[in-house]
Amino acid sequence: MPGKAKQVLLVEDEDNIALALSVLIEREGYIIDRVADGDRAIETLNRSKPDLVVLDAMIPGVSGFGVCQHIRQSKDLADLKVLMISAAGQKLRSQALDIGADAFLLKPFDTRELT
């Protein structure tokens, strides 16, 4: 009996990027739930626990950093894997890892690196 498909919460405000990421992630067998801002991300995380969050650092509302901090401070979510992405530069990489992201990808990135 096959296992349950893994759930990914994609937090990305740019539709074209979200569509491309969704196709790549779904191709790997994951189920995507997408939101476009930090407030909705926190609401979604408080309702359900995905297996992975792919989180843009620069989103409307609560920033990706704020969402990551929420995850790490929540007893129910603290072990959730977080992949942060950003086009804003390498400086954000250390900030993301310092607040608890498990990995960081700089946009644009190689699709093999993502999968």
Explained architecture:
By secondary structure, this protein is an alpha/beta fold. The protein has five helices and five strands. Strands 2-1-3-4-5 form a five-stranded parallel beta sheet, sandwiched between helices. α2 packs parallel to α3 (64-73). The protein is globular and about 40 Å long. It starts with 6 loop residues before the first strand and ends with a helix. The mean pLDDT is 90.
Overall shape: it is globular
String of helices and strands = EHEHEHEHEH
Q: Using only CA atoms, what is the Rg?
A: 13 Å
> How far apart are the first and last residues' alpha carbons, in Å?
25 Å
What fraction strand? 15-25%
* Portion in helices: 40-55%
Q: Helix/strand/pairing class, anyone?
A: alpha/beta
Number of strands: 5
- The total of helices stands at 5
Strand order of the largest sheet: 2-1-3-4-5
- Mind describing the biggest β-sheet? 5 strands, parallel
| Low-confidence region ranges | none
- Give the overall pLDDT as a whole number: 90
Please supply descriptive tags for the structure shown above.
115 residues; alpha/beta; 5-stranded parallel β-sheet; 5 helices; 40% helix; 22% strand
Describe the protein's topology:
Blueprint: E1 7-11, H1 15-27, E2 31-35, H2 38-47, E3 52-56, H3 64-73, E4 81-86, H4 91-99, E5 103-106, H5 111-114
Parallel strand pairs: 1-2, 1-3, 3-4, 4-5
In short:
This protein is an alpha/beta fold and 115 residues long. Helix content is 40%, strand content 22%. The chain has helices spanning 15-27, 38-47, 64-73, 91-99, 111-114; strands spanning 7-11, 31-35, 52-56, 81-86, 103-106.
